[in-house]
Specification:
This protein is mainly alpha-helical and 198 residues long. 44% of the residues lie in helices and 4% in strands. It has two domains: 7-75, no CATH class; 87-196, no CATH class. The chain has seven helices and two strands; from the N terminus they run αααααββαα. This is Angiotensin-converting enzyme.
Length: 198
Amino acid sequence: MEESLHMSKIHGTPSQEVDDVWEQIKPLYTLLHAYVRRRLREAYGPERISRSAPLPAHVLGDMWGQSWSGIVPLTLPYPGKTLVDVTPEMIQQGYTPLSVFQLAEEFFVSMNMSAMPPDFWQLSVLEQPPERHIHCQPSAWDFCNKHDYRIKMCAHADQKDLVTAHHEMAHVQYFLAYRNLPKVFRDGANPALVQLVG
């Protein structure tokens, strides 16, 4: 796609901006969706995967169709080729759990989103505390006071946690964007949309 998604090229109301961005990415989305549909039809047969009906969520890799990582073996364009793993480079460059989150913050700030507030860095748990064991399921938290947002995650300096750190910090970006709205408007409009955040 030659046309840039830079905001400077987008004018009008917020809904018009969303429509404009969608029109720019729709051709790529359509091609990717068609590719996935074809590969699923090859794997499951035309009687289970229609040429035109919506794709059944349960064949996309999880029951809700939120993560398509489970269908990578079916859709990988170059089977047998090794996927890129940045973990060795992260280790060589001396990444730590803290620097993984600092990199995620840089990513969001580079798109003109908010930097994390001071409480985030002071109160988040970004790695397993040495003095006690905690349950480490990654999660993002909004304490609904307009300044206290946290992530609880026992991160490691590897590619998997690099992706997860960006995902969890994207939740915090939502919290920051919604902080001045009444509580009823702070949750995502649809749980499926919230899962697309990372």
